[in-house]
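User: My advisor, Dr. K., asked me to get a structural model of this assembly before our group meeting. I'm new to this, so sorry if the format is off. These are the inputs:
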Amino acid sequence: EVDLVESGGDLVQPGGSLRLSCAASGFIFGNYWMSWVRQPPGRGLEWVANIRHDGGEKYYVDSVKGRFTISRDNAKNSLHLQMNSLRVEDTAVYYCGQGGDYDSPVDSWGQGTLVTVSS
Amino acid sequence: QSVLTQPPSVSAAPGQNVTISCSGSSSNIGNNYVSWYQQLPGTAPKLLIYDNHKRISGIPDRFSGSKSGTSATLGITGLQTGDEADYYCGTWDSSLSAGVFGGGTKLTVL
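Assistant: The format is fine. Below is the predicted structure of the whole assembly, which you can bring to the meeting.
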């Protein structure tokens, strides 16, 4: 059974940094694209970024380009999201997802980790 | 403002049928597969439908998906109170080189 466990969410001031992690188990991690999707409080889903199984391709939503970096460690079955220059509008629950490339959906989702950007 | 357009809410009585629309463009729905997700209150989203119309294992055939041109539709028949949730469509946008979701539709089973 696929299990995705996010961690690293916290309260941070505007302009600050945070690194999210996602521990994956129950599937061959190195064979899958992985994604980050966020959901601001009381609002809808927003796709954030994804990364190819070998890390060779990465895509980002325009609003985070240049500030966020997605990465993965296939040896440790882990996915990361380094978030710099955080803004109030980055406040959201961040979900880690298995899959999510050009022609496949996010198959499985973690429980999410809350990032709050506030002074 | 979401790239994909969904109605904010739909409602119907138990046992009735509903459809939820998802409208996009040639750069997203028109040329890529559509998926549908269900988010029950207080929980993470769950994949229901992928490749426009294929149900995930374990999803009852009361749920169906279809696509025509630049629009997609999620259908739910024989509504149950347990179907009350937010529903999102999603796909890839080839022009943006990014994933996109609809704004979500809140289903109320009266």
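One thing worth pointing out at the meeting: The two ends of chain B are 28 Å apart (CA to CA).

User: Perfect, thanks a lot.
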